[in-house]
């Protein structure tokens, strides 16, 4: 085992790897509660049950996709990087694809499946580097920051901290409402934990919020802690349903959905891979060994997750917490996979996950993603305009795809006007055309 994972070569041991795997799991365990709540549209009122995914099935699908991704990343790529359904991607799935586009969630899963297949093909053919390099660095950072604002807005709205207002569109919620105060308290506690750099701060913050909610009678206590594994039948294989209705997938709207899933997953995976590998001193001569294997692990987990019934699976930056305590090999990812497997038996605890409990996770993840704003050249107008539109249009239109579309359309326009057309990759022109068609045929 030590030879397979190259313990001696990478200067690690079982203790460090196990501790690293456990730390990574605790740092990202919040997804087990947030993903089912997000995809089942918990807390969103006034929509038919047919638009909601079964929370229990999504819980199981989340874990199975994570296990597959972590095992493949650990055993094949030998990186201490964990995978799970991504934040931002689940928000896009629930609030844009299902609620805004009125696309059945089953067809949404088909889009996730297609994006995973395309990701795998691009990885095997080497085209992934071409596409990633074609998209300007500033727009990648803008997409990440915009998703951060969007996720935060979703969390604040769901918890009632902000609410709709006919005069001003949005306003401060009823801060005298005990449920709103619970969410505010949870966010405050999580911020304190994060500031003190406590491992697993987001997960601990959610747990404390749930405990206080139960103590004050705001959340019903679970009837049991350990229970049977929920049935995955409500979501399993539903990604193939759309194949019987070709008109649902052969249209511009579906293409935009697939491209958005693909773009965001690209950015998340590439950025996380480089960041965590650099932190672990695994980069050799400015190159990342086994990069293709790690990217394929991501695409494989996405395809498996879509078949089981969850949104796009991606690499988690929280893996850096495991690296910080000593993880250096894929053995840590295997440990994280085992932790996810054990979590299958704790589904009854999901009953305590309310909008107030998930709010701390959504807000803090938003803060971490918005940190990319400092990497954008705001002093250059031709860069600032598309970046700003990408960021601001996501929360204001409640759509990640719309934000990306605005930025990708205006980027070639401002760059050409600034006489920097030679810096524009031809792929960016093609994307601009696709997103113009998106507004013509979809947004009406």
From TrEMBL:
InterPro entries of this UniProt entry? Answer: Azg-like, Azg-like_bact_archaea, NCS2
Keyword Coiled coil attributed: no
Q: Where in the cell is it found?
A: Cell membrane
What top-level branch of life does the organism fall under?
Bacteria
Tell me what topology the record assigns in the membrane: Multi-pass membrane protein
Q: Does the keyword Iron-sulfur apply?
A: no
Q: Which residues cross the membrane?
A: 21-44, 56-76, 83-103, 109-127, 139-159, 202-219, 254-283, 295-317, 323-345, 352-371, 383-411, 423-442
Keywords on this record? Cell membrane, Membrane, Transmembrane, Transmembrane helix, Transport
**Protein family (similarity comment):** Belongs to the nucleobase:cation symporter-2 (NCS2) (TC 2.A.40) family. Azg-like subfamily.
Q: This chain belongs to which protein, by name? A: NCS2 family permease
Provide the species name: Macrococcus armenti
């Amino acid at each position: 085992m030590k030879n397979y994972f190259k313990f001696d070569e990478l200067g690690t041991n079982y203790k460090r790897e196990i501790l690293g795997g456990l730390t990574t799991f605790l740092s990202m365990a919040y997804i087990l509660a947030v993903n089912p709540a997000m995809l089942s549209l918990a807390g969103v009122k006034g929509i038919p049950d047919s638009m909601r995914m079964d929370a229990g099935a999504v819980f199981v699908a989340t874990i199975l996709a994570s296990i597959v991704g972590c095992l493949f990343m650990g055993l094949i790529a030998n990186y201490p990087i964990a995978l799970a359904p991504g934040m931002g991607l689940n928000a896009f799935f629930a609030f844009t694809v299902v609620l805004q586009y009125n696309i059945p969630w089953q067809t949404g899963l088909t889009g996730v499946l297609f994006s995973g297949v395309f990701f795998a093909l691009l990885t095997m053919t080497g085209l992934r580097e071409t596409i990633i390099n074609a998209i300007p660095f500033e727009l990648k950072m803008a997409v990440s920051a915009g998703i951060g604002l969007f996720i935060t807005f979703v969390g604040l709205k769901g918890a009632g901290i902000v609410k709709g207002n006919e005069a001003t569109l949005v306003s401060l919620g009823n801060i005298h409402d005990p449920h709103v105060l619970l969410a505010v308290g949870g966010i405050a506690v999580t911020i304190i934990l994060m500031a003190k750099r406590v491992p697993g701060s987001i997960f601990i913050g959610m747990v404390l919020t749930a405990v206080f909610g139960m103590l004050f009678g705001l959340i019903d206590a679970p009837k049991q802690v350990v229970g049977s594994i929920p049935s995955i039948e409500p979501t399993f294989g539903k990604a193939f349903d759309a194949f019987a209705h070709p008109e649902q997938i052969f249209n511009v709207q579906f293409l935009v959905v697939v491209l958005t899933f693909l773009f965001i997953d690209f950015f998340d995976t590439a950025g996380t891979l480089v960041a965590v590998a650099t932190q672990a001193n695994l980069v050799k001569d400015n190159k990342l060994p086994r990069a293709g294997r790690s990217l394929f692990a991501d695409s494989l987990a996405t395809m498996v997750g879509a078949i089981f019934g969850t949104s796009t699976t991606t690499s988690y930056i929280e893996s850096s917490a495991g690296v910080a305590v000593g993880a250096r090999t894929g053995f840590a990812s295997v440990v994280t996979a085992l932790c996810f497997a054990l979590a299958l038996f704790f589904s009854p605890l999901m009953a305590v996950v309310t909008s107030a409990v998930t709010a701390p996770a959504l807000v803090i993840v938003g803060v971490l993603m918005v940190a990319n704003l400092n990497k954008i050249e705001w002093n250059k107008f031709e860069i600032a305009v598309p970046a700003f539109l990408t960021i601001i249009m996501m929360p204001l239109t409640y759509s990640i795809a719309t934000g990306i579309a605005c930025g990708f359309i205006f980027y070639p326009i401002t760059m050409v006007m600034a006489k920097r057309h030679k810096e524009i990759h031809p792929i960016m022109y093609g994307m601009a055309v696709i997103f113009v068609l998106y507004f013509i045929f979809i947004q009406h």
